[in-house]
Specification:
The complex is a heterodimer of chains A (238) and B (308). Chain A has 12 helices and no strands. Chain A is mostly helical and 238 residues long. Chain A has one domain. Chain A is globular. Chain B is of the alpha/beta class and 308 residues long. In chain B, the strands form 3 sheets. Chain B has a 6-stranded mixed sheet with strand order 6-7-8-3-9-10, sandwiched between helices. In chain B, helix 6 links the parallel strand 7 and strand 8. The radius of gyration of chain B is 24 Å and the shape is elongated. In chain B, 40% of the residues are buried. Classes of the chains: A mainly alpha (238), B alpha/beta (308). Chains A and B meet through helix 1 and helix 5 of A and helix 2 and helix 3 of B.
């Protein structure tokens, strides 16, 4: 556990030691800030953050891959995976530690947006139920994206390739499980719709906390991280 | 104590290591020599557990490197050839991180980091970003991180590649100091470096151990060269009769001259006087009579013969 924490904190801190962390955070906050000011803060509109959540859901498709791309691919490229994997720690601890570090960065990315909540509170009386649900949904969506990202990052020693394959995989996931599913019709749609992450996010943004969504998204994270561990393990046996 | 028993490693069809066997004990520095691509790094990686052997076994203090990998890894300090570090971290941050990976407590880490920073002469750069450091400093950061948990066994893959001569001398002294109490295994293809830093060497070529010798052996074994104008069929048995001769290799030269390369037995010592006397009594003209200690160079050259 202490080792896992050591890896997670190093990963988290390195996001702030490298330009990538600051760039991602600046872009995300700029875009959500613009949307908040232009769309949410309109006189007469309800005091809700739905616009922010819908936009963030899209932005996460680019933000999450940018966070996850270096997690493992940079270790392969620099060779720093060798002293890591010859230290007395398991491959599980390495991958989960890195994943937790990335998730912590996601949290610190979302944290400044609480300012928008404070602005709403100052101007009106927002309903905190949907806001809470929205944040939960964003966090879960981001965690699924990061889990997919760490799989892509484990497969290549190039950060760029990891970034692009993650975005590509997310696009396929997104389009395939919504428009694609609708176009294919029965019986494929009943198979593909449940795989959709953004349909579930839509529910969260509306203020619905459905435990099925939570279970499915957490299970997706666990499943993807397990795949990433297997990929790391397999490198040892090549 | 490292025991490497008949390890093999194949990458697809390429057999990188073919049956390497050796041991290394605490209090000794063992050098692994070999030309580039001989299988030194692969052998080292099988000891550290980074690569599992295709067959054969590596045991460290009686623990198997595959089945009891965690216990083995705790006993090893390893510096890979390329010294991979995280450039964005500061020296102290990195060492602290490595200490946490080896489960050292906060106070243990503080003491260990201070000690190794001092030992590896890193005081001046302790708060610098690793990415800004010179190659020599990076190498020392890597060495300090490998030593943090005070491992009984230290494995260094080409520890002096890319260092300048004074840095090489410093790191050699440090290796000698560490080898007082630890088993130090270091690979290199630079002969003088190994000659000065190690107590014993093995030479690996084409994935096999071709030669093994202690430095003391290499100091005592001697090779004589005598060039005579004589009939080899008469000279050969006469030289062979000299006390202390282990082997003779005649090689015919131009216009009746023959060079005899005479190896002395370990107790044979200097045979020049006897060889000279023999030539004199037989009235064989002599144009060269010399002795050299068959150092590492000969051992290496003989071992890798036909490889390059």
């Amino acid at each position: 556990m202490k080792v896992l924490a050591a890896i997670a904190t190093r990963e988290f801190a390195s996001m702030f030691r490298l330009p990538i962390g600051w760039v991602v955070m600046a872009l995300y906050l700029l875009l959500t800030g613009v949307v908040f000011a232009a769309v949410t803060l309109r006189p007469g509109d309800p005091a809700s953050l739905r616009g922010l959540f819908t936009l963030s859901d899209w932005l996460l498709m680019f933000v999450a891959p940018a966070i996850s791309m270096r997690l493992l691919s940079d270790e392969w490229r620099q060779g720093s995976i060798e002293p890591l994997m010859t230290a007395p720690i398991s491959d599980w601890q390495i991958v989960i530690g890195k994943y937790v570090g990335a998730a912590l960065f996601l949290l610190s990315l979302l944290a400044p947006t609480l300012v928008y909540v404070a602005v709403l509170e100052a101007l009106s009386s927002p309903d905190y139920g949907p806001i809470l649900a929205g944040y939960l949904g964003l966090l879960l969506t981001g965690m699924v994206y990061l889990a997919l990202g760490i799989v892509c990052s484990a497969l290549t020693s190039s950060q760029v390739v990891a970034f692009l394959t993650t975005i590509f995989a997310l696009l396929i996931l997104r389009i395939g499980t919504t428009m694609g599913a609708a176009a294919l019709g029965a019986p494929w749609d009943s198979l593909l719709f449940p795989l959709s992450i953004d349909i579930r996010m839509l529910d969260f943004a509306r203020g619905i906390i459905d435990t099925r969504h939570i279970v499915v998204m957490l299970a997706a994270c666990a499943w993807l991280v397990t795949i990433a561990v297997s990929i790391v393990e397999s490198r040892r046996w090549r | 104590m490292i025991e490497v028993a008949d390890i093999h490693k194949s990458f697809g069809k390429v057999k990188a290591v073919r049956g390497v066997t050796f041991t290394a004990s605490p209090g000794e520095a063992l050098g692994i020599l070999g030309p580039n691509g001989a299988g030194k790094t692969t052998t080292i990686r099988m000891i550290t557990g980074w690569l599992p052997p295709t067959s054969g076994s590596v045991t460290v203090d009686g623990l198997d490197s595959v089945d009891q990998s965690m216990a083995v890894r705790r006993r090893l300090g390893y510096l890979p050839e390329t010294t991979p570090l995280y450039p964005e971290m500061r020296v102290k941050q990195y060492l602290d991180y490595r200490g946490r990976l080896y489960r050292l407590s906060r106070s243990q880490r503080k003491a260990a980091i201070d000690h190794r920073i001092d030992q590896c002469a890193l005081t001046a750069v302790r708060d610098r970003r690793i990415g800004e450091l010179s190659k020599g400093y990076k190498q020392r950061v890597g060495l300090a991180s490998a030593l943090l948990h005070d491992p009984p066994i230290l494995i260094l893959d080409e520890p002096t590649s890319g260092l300048d001569p004074s840095q090489i001398a410093e790191s050699r002294n440090l290796i000698r100091e560490l080898a007082q109490t630890k088993a130090v295994l270091l690979s290199s293809h630079i002969l003088p470096e190994v000659e000065k830093a190690c107590d014993r060497v093995i030479v690996i070529a084409q994935g096999e151990v071709r030669a093994e010798a202690t430095m003391t052996d290499l100091m005592t074994s001697r090779q004589h060269t005598i060039e005579l104008k004589a009939d080899p069929t008469a000279a050969l048995p006469a030289i062979n009769a000299i006390k202390g001769v282990a082997s003779i290799k005649p090689s015919p030269l131009e216009s009746g001259w023959t060079r005899f390369t005479v190896e002395a037995t370990n107790s044979g010592g200097d045979l020049r006087e006897a060889l000279g006397a023999l030539a004199l009594t037989n009235s064989w003209p002599v144009r060269e009579l010399s002795i050299k200690s068959t150092g590492l160079e000969t051992l290496f050259a003989n071992a890798v013969e036909g490889v390059q």
